[in-house]
Amino acid sequence: SYNPAMRFVLTVIGAPGSSLPNAGLVEAAGTALAGCGHRPGPPDWLAPEEACDIPFELATTEPEEAGTGDILSAVRAQLAGAPVDLAILPTAGRRKALLVADMESTVIGQEMIDELAEIAGIGPHIAAITARAMAGELDFTAALRERVALLRGLSVAALERAARRITIDPGARTLVQTMRAHGAWTALVSGGFDYFASVVGRACGFDEIRANRLLLADGMLSGTVAEPVLDRDAKLATLHELAKRRGVKPAASCAVGDGANDLAMIRAAGLGVAYRGKPLLRAAADACIDHGDLSALLYLQGYRKNDFRT
Length: 310
Hints:
- The protein is 38% helix and 22% strand.
- By secondary structure, it is an alpha/beta fold.
């Protein structure tokens, strides 16, 4: 018998302009669902040749037994490596009331401490530490303090130079503006620096920003960062704090990031997304976006292209 709580949706998302998924690919995905014993409904195109929902009922009566990972594997095999993102999510409560987004290598294409290091002439040394910290091989806070110490004596003008290198990732502003237009609260929560986060926050239209503060002395970086450091635990605490302030449960939140520092908030969110994510984060996320841009997070929530705002 049909149980509404057992309704799931397979969302298939392609890169904008790639003309994928197409009708044949969506049909193949439905065939894979049926082959697993699940009952797919008719496809619902959220955007022509870009995003499609395939609702389905699980063959099992217990959600724990659903094994959505196994279903995704079966669909992937059927699609034979087509460059699309796939996610299986419950249809209930898809639209989220809160967005918590990481900044570096998520909303923007850069790691700003690496940009500062390049300007300071110590790029490779600091970039190597950053890569290890983002992969979860180093303690984030210790690695941040170590890198900031190496920037001591850099002028404020270097911050301005680095800020000019910022590139906002495609779909970021659309994601923020669309969710805001539909009543959600949006926060940029970065383990990076508020000097850059304020620039990015304004460009995308986030409701608020949280980030670390580089301390200055006589117009130069002192080589220290204000305490307490905004780290993995602080990102998680921020998600809980904002959800409480908005009067919603963490399940009503969407969190997106790329690295180990985002792990706790990705796990806690109702929709945790790894965007071009590191392996550690991908394993914990509800969805991984590798082909679509950041507007893919809207499709995951069931928004249609004509709902988008810029």
